[in-house]
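Example with several molecule types.
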Amino acid sequence: MAQSGTLMGFVHRRRRGAELFLLVIALVVGIGAYAAVGIGVEGKVPADIVGYGGGLAALVIAAHVVVRLVAPYADPVLLPVVAALNGLGLAVIHRLDLAYEASGIKHDYAQQQLIWMTVGVVLFIGTLLLLRDHRVLQRFTYTSGLVAIGLLLLPMLPGIGRTINGARIWIHLGPFSFQPGEVAKVLLVVAFAGYLVLHRDALALAGRRVVFVDLPRGRDLGPILGMWLVSLGILVFQSDLGSSLLFFGLFLVTLYVATERPGWLVVGGLLFLAGATLAYRLVPHVGQRVDVWLHPFNYYDKNPGSFQPVEAQFGMGWGGLIGRGFGNGSPERVPYANSDFILSSIGEELGLTAVIAVILLYGLVVERALRAALISRDPFGKLLATGLAAIFTLQVFVVIGGVTGLIPLTGLTTPFLSYGGSSLVANWVIIALLIRISDQARRPVPDLSGEDDTDADLESTQVVRMT
Amino acid sequence: MNKPIRTISMFCLLLFLALMINATYLQYYKASSLDKDPRNRRVIVAAYSRERGAILVGREPVAESLPKDDQYKFQRTYSQPLRYAPITGFFSYYNQTGVEQTQNAVLSGDDPDLFVTKLIDLLSNNPTKGGSVQLTINPKAQNAAYDGLKALGNNVQGAVVALEPSTGKILAMVSSPTFDPNKLASHDLSSVTDTYKSLNDDPAEPLLNRAIQTTLPPGSTFKLVTAAAAIESGNYTAADKVPGGPTYQLPLTSGPSGLIDNEGRDCGTDRIPFTQAMGNSCNTSFAALANEVGAEAMTKQAEAFGFNSHYLDDLRPQAISQFPTKMDAAETGQTGFGQFDVTATPLQMAMVAAGIANAGTVMKPYIVDEVQSPNYDVINKIQPEELSQAVTSTTASELTKLMVYTVDHGTAIPAAIPGIVVAGKTGTAQSGITNVPPYAWFVSFAPADDPKVAVAVMIQKADIPRDEIAGGVYGGPIAKAIMEAVIQ
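Resulting structure tokens for the full complex:
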């Protein structure tokens, strides 16, 4: 995999100063939002603004320092973007805590989320410190695959598995509850990338050609069929539409990128349609979701019905272009306003402007991840980054699309914004991996034109001489 | 692998674009239709917590929002709840009626006419305030109407409407039984639900504005329309003689069921003066006249006064007063004295009187006189509109003569005001339902030479002996009191 960037002698700069500057802006967003919540809801800047702001700043600065030390060439945009999202999410969760408190039930979701963010940043730092080269992960292809499957099966175990809101995706261990699927998705990306790097040549062999598209050979359909069945299984046994969609989409994208065969997209698309039709017909939970999506206003008073998505739409419509302002809306009317439906809370109180800004921030994360994939020098890194970008995009699309009524509603968290430890921690690890891959990709090639290496890498030295 | 990565990038871009387009659609283009959804509590709570404008009668607010130290900040308060409830309606957390409903945009401050004040409020970061609505109601007339109806007992069901003939302004509108809108405006939502349920289930229908929402046979007051059609035909003036006699056999009928009589009033034998026919409310004369002019002319005349049409925008819903468009000769004869399928609201009958009083021109009735900004600057003064030319001015003055005679020498004598020429007509309509007593009607206007007020009184049910129900006895004094209140 020769890279045009390095071939032309282009060397990425470290840009750590830019990252720090952007982080300051991100902190202004996070801490400013927290102050705005206090002013909007209680009429004064919260008393603990210094402690809160200090804590938030300490976390992101710690992350920055570690990046500066162990991944100096990493993409400078990723960390500030997720810091801003996380800060905004904390402020909105705090805003909802105040709303719940006003109606008589005291919650401290914001504090818990701050603790989870700390855990997330610690894992982020840990990942960067321990994992100095992402290619190491390739060794754990099958291990991560097995662990991921194990994690996905955990909620099915009696005793620790819990069904919450119809989906059996939770485990409870003592006081802790956790969604193992969130961790499993990171492991699955690793497993898919590792597996496909090894088997991509075989899977890329062309079979029958139908209308400009080379379909894969029948005998190679095994993996995708297996993945399809696993996804359907998640859907049927755990009633988790979102994760099912996420895993299959992820597999399809990595398969396509690994083999460069659009034929896989055709096969995958057909399988998706078949699965969707089957699920719609046979799984009552799914059929009902689709009906509610098609005619949300007919199911407002029903149970199960569309109260939640319709209230979310009312709220977002009520917010309009610039929103009602913190404290002037009623985002708490939407059930789970601080987790799955946090975007409707943002839409109601901060308006379309903030919703577009949030979507653009997500878009930036994905753009940066795909950029890292493009310039990465090793196929495993490319696949890993693309897979992480894909899972991030799909999750954002599925959850925001569901909340805004673009697609049927599925239960997924909004990365970095939603209240929920498992998701937040997993997403911080995803960002750590992306930072590691981008650091590897942007790092200048070791100076191979040195005295001793002329024989070892003849080609490189020749190119350098020519230019 | 870079080519598929670029393809995937485009795909991701498309997904993000779709999200942004959909969010824009939802929060910008679809927002106003979402805000209009009756289930959207945010809009309701916001409207509910706003300083809503006042509904004014004269200089006095009959409905206003007073500051309250709770979640909704303001409490809608009705100073004379029972007296004005049919007009103001109520403003509850769940819905509104009456002027509260039809003028909601102004009262809540969302009306385009209030855009400038709203913009100033927005820029100066003040909460939006609603504009005020000035009603056409004359408080003295309203009091006279309410007190008059109330004097007939607590269980009276009826309505009174007074109009200014030259403009169509509603000077008084009372409906009984009534209700207390303060109870429905309460912030104690469960008590609001209970109150609403008990009001809604009450067989006396207190939430009904009988002045505009109840249509009943107008009985003899409809003879004014028949007389109008007869005079318009060119065959009669007030000085002419009309068919009379103690009985009238309806065409196409034989025997007692088609035989009309006059319940003992003197209607001569063959032809009698028009004044006597009107003054003694001769059914036989008007059945004959209706058949003389024919069904088509009767329909045309009734519709010229506003039957079969919608004309009231300020209160909803307005019941349509009915005059049948297809009928045979026997039925036409019955419509001549306001029976068969003829039904009218009290407002409709007041419009008949007002049309005659206003030289034949029926004005469109209205109750909102002015729209005012939150600072009580007049933003919109409503101009009177002509609804129709029901009869020529000559016909109108002939009809006035007949009505004046009826007050001076006929059944409408209880409405006579010393020193003022009053024109009036009584009515007692058969309900047509067993055990339901007849309905008493009374319409009048005064002064006859320069009419300032036209009144219609309808008593649907009252705790009075059945044989005493005659429009003149109970409706007359109420009409008189209202006319006096306006003139003096």
